[in-house]
Automatic annotation (TrEMBL):
This is Lipid A core-O-antigen ligase. The keyword Transmembrane applies. Keywords: Ligase, Membrane, Plasmid, Transmembrane, Transmembrane helix. The keyword Transmembrane helix applies.
Length: 427
């Protein structure tokens, strides 16, 4: 039996210093409170909760300003943090460098700046806020957003709004955004249930997300939601010791890979049946057509791509065809990996895939080391979104909480494994 303690308890010296400040008449608003407000703002902006409220752009501008001020306030501490975080920042460097050969340099420069700032915000959060705090805030933020969206479908307290692909879903910009938020909310609710020792309640709350998936009508969301079926046993067995954890992870991976293989061998067209129930066609609502054009673009510029985010900003036969026959307002390939290769080619693929592999390995080792709910959350958050990236742009994307969580998972897992050295602020 292995004793596991999930909450990260702050050192006594920090508590006493805060207490002395309050007793001496100092400010009650501590650095911890400021950091938590910063995290909540990032979670609300990164999950799209504030999109329909018109606060998305001001929220990111505020985050940009706070981030730059924090990094400049103590440049020595910032330099030490960024030096350790270089693997997380390398994909941003490649994205910014692609401005030099981009088919639309201003767009690439602007979007790569946004990607870099998104990553710097993630690094700042992970270097200042404990892993379990981030887990709780992101989980509750997604859950609140989904609840408000479902409530809006019943009461309609938000005015009707439209997107090129149809009516906006609740407080989110598109049905796919609602679908991704619903999966992440369900994952978070299951996690918090185990974290607060209310596992049954957490699973019931996650089950309540299923009607919202029906609103989103997303086949990819149903697939990633199903991954929770192997996540729950991993959390349940985590306290049985190191061997049981290894068995649980091995079982999860076997299920994750063998079930689709068994379905394929059996000849059952599970995907076709799911698409038929959702009223979608065999092209995944045009995704296969879009992917085919994306693969052609990769072959045309395999080394450095056409520039991060630049493909959809210039006229081309592929773009005109896609907009005419698939989706009028499309500006991504509905596949993070194709988007990455089109924008940054092999250079981007090597750096970003290298980061993804490092994150997964670190999170696996973190879970095997202490078996905490927090480590399980980050491991499966990464795995779920790696699967989701096959049908939507959820990573390597600016202003995305999912991209931020991958960067934060690398730091949090490194801290737990002793491979990240916290840098105290200069007094």
């Amino acid at each position: 039996m292995t004793l596991t303690v999930d909450p990260d308890t702050p050192p006594p010296r920090t508590r006493h210093s805060v207490l002395r400040r309050r007793m001496s008449g100092g400010w009650w608003l501590t650095r911890g409170h400021l950091h938590m407000a910063y995290l909540i703002l990032a979670a609300m902006s990164g999950t799209g909760v504030v999109y329909r409220l018109g606060f998305q752009s001001p929220g990111w501008m505020a985050l940009y300003a706070l981030t730059i001020l924090w990094y400049l306030r103590d440049w020595r501490q910032s330099a030490a943090i960024l030096w350790q975080a270089w693997p997380v920042l390398m994909p941003c460097v490649i994205a910014m460098a692609s401005t030099l050969w981009s088919v639309n340099p201003p767009v690439t420069a602007y979007r790569s700046f946004q990607l870099t700032m998104t990553t710097l915000i993630a690094v700042r959060i992970a270097s200042a806020i404990p892993a379990h705090h981030t887990m709780i805030v992101v989980s509750l933020t997604s859950a609140v957003g989904v609840a408000l969206s479902y409530l809006n479908s019943i009461v309609t307290f938000l005015s009707p709004a439209f997107h090129p692909n149809g009516a906006l879903k609740g407080i989110y910009m598109h049905k796919n955004s609602l679908a991704k938020a619903t999966v992440n909310a369900a994952h978070g609710l299951v996690t918090l249930g185990f974290y607060w020792r209310l596992s049954i309640l957490g699973m019931l709350a996650a089950a309540l997300m299923i009607p919202v998936l029906g609103m989103a009508q997303s086949a990819g969301a149903y697939v990633t939601f199903a991954i929770l079926a192997i996540y729950v046993p991993v959390l349940w067995i985590r306290r049985w010791g190191g061997t049981a954890r290894r068995v649980a992870l091995l079982f999860s991976l076997m299920v994750l890979f063998l079930v689709p293989l068994a379905i394929y061998i059996s000849g059952i067209d599970a995907l076709g049946l799911l698409l038929e129930r959702l009223g979608k066609d065999s092209t995944l609502t045009g995704r296969t057509v879009i992917w085919a054009f994306g693969l052609e673009e990769i072959a045309n510029a395999p080394i450095g791509g056409v520039g991060f985010g630049a493909f959809w900003s210039v006229p081309s036969y592929a773009r005109l065809y896609i907009e005419a026959y698939v989706d009028e307002g499309l500006y991504w390939f509905h596949n993070s990996y194709i988007e990455l290769m089109v924008g940054n080619g092999l250079l981007g693929a090597v750096t970003f895939f290298g980061l993804l592999i490092a994150v997964v390995i670190r999170c696996f080792r973190w879970y095997l080391q202490d078996g905490s709910v927090t480590s399980g959350y980050y491991l499966f958050y990464v795995l779920i979104n790696l699967v989701a990236a096959l049908s939507d742009n959820v990573i390597y994307n600016e202003h995305s909480i999912r991209h931020m969580l991958i960067a934060m998972a690398w730091i949090y897992a490194g801290r737990a494994l002793g491979r990240w050295r916290d840098v105290p602020p200069r007094i």
